[in-house]
From TrEMBL:
Subcellular location: Cell membrane
Source organism phylogeny: Bacteria, Pseudomonadati, Bacteroidota, Sphingobacteriia, Sphingobacteriales
Species per Swiss-Prot/TrEMBL record: Pedobacter psychrotolerans
Domain ABC-2 type transporter transmembrane: start-end pairs: 52-187
Entries under PANTHER family matching the protein: MEMBRANE COMPONENT OF ABC TRANSPORTER YHHJ-RELATED, MULTIDRUG ABC TRANSPORTER PERMEASE YBHS-RELATED
Keyword Membrane: yes
InterPro entries from the UniProt entry: ABC-2_transporter_component, ABC2_TM, Motility-assoc_ABC_perm_GldF
Name of this protein: ABC-2 type transport system permease protein
Residues passing through the membrane, by range: 12-35, 55-73, 94-116, 136-157, 164-181, 219-237
Length: 241
């Protein structure tokens, strides 16, 4: 399993696609946080990172599909998956190894954003006047959100040999899981079930953790969603195998 994880991670890091994707993510998030008039923290005037954490899920909807789209699609397109499954490793271990490699890359993309937190802390008055609890909670929420999106991306990549199609499927799944239930709950004939419907969506649980409150129900939700899509991937790969 470690060999597959290392192979997958190094294949990402040896590809310019990974660096370009992460670079675009950091560039857009930096521009939104510091320069664009409607979202700039300098115009907002408060030392808090709520704007970044509100925008990050939407950026993840493009970053993570770009990272995960090649996981199984490229293996099957090049014919190397048949060689991989002959190794003394189970399908579950292959899926988990690819999932962890992609998740590590997502984590790497978040590390440079710690500079934003440090800069905002220094700009605060008095210096260091930033809600560290909310920031830590938001990063935890963003990591769990990334894990769920990554599992969806692995599943999407297992459905097709075409990386572009895998990207589109993953982006659609992420968008629906994050926003779809919010819009569905607003339908007139579902008003009586609004709270129940919202509880199925990612947005409500992510917002809860971002307030700095680590509720076990939110953590269980993200873990369950991640495991569920990894199981879907195993069922898909098992059928194709």
């Amino acid at each position: 399993m470690y060999a597959v994880f290392k192979r997958e991670l190094f294949s990402f890091l040896s590809s310019m696609v990974a660096y370009i994707t992460i670079g675009i993510f950091l560039l857009i998030s930096g521009l939104l946080l510091w320069f664009f008039p409607d979202t700039s923290i300098l115009d907002y005037g408060y030392a808090e990172m709520g704007g970044f954490f509100s925008l990050a899920p939407y950026l993840f909807m493009f970053l993570i599909p770009a990272i995960t789209m090649r996981s199984f699609a490229e293996e099957r397109r090049e014919g190397t998956y048949e060689l991989l499954i002959t190794k003394p490793i189970t399908v579950s271990q292959i899926i988990v190894a690819k999932f962890l490699a992609s998740l590590v890359l997502v984590f790497f993309s978040l590390i440079p954003t710690f500079v934003y937190c440090y800069s905002i802390s220094k700009l605060g008055f008095p210096e260091g006047n930033i809600d560290s609890g909310a920031v830590i909670g938001s990063y935890i929420g963003l990591f769990f959100l990334g894990a769920a999106f990554t599992a969806m991306g692995i599943f999407a990549s297992a459905l097709t040999k075409n990386q572009v199609i895998a990207f589109v499927i993953c982006a659609a799944l992420c968008a629906f899981a994050f926003l779809g239930f919010d819009y569905t709950s607003q339908l007139p004939f579902l008003q009586n079930f609004q709270n129940s419907i919202l509880s199925f969506g990612i947005n409500q649980h992510y917002a809860s953790i971002s307030r700095g409150v680590l509720d076990t129900r939110d953590l269980i939700y993200f873990i369950t969603l991640t495991v569920l899509f990894l199981v879907f991937t195993k069922v898909t790969i098992g059928g194709k195998r």
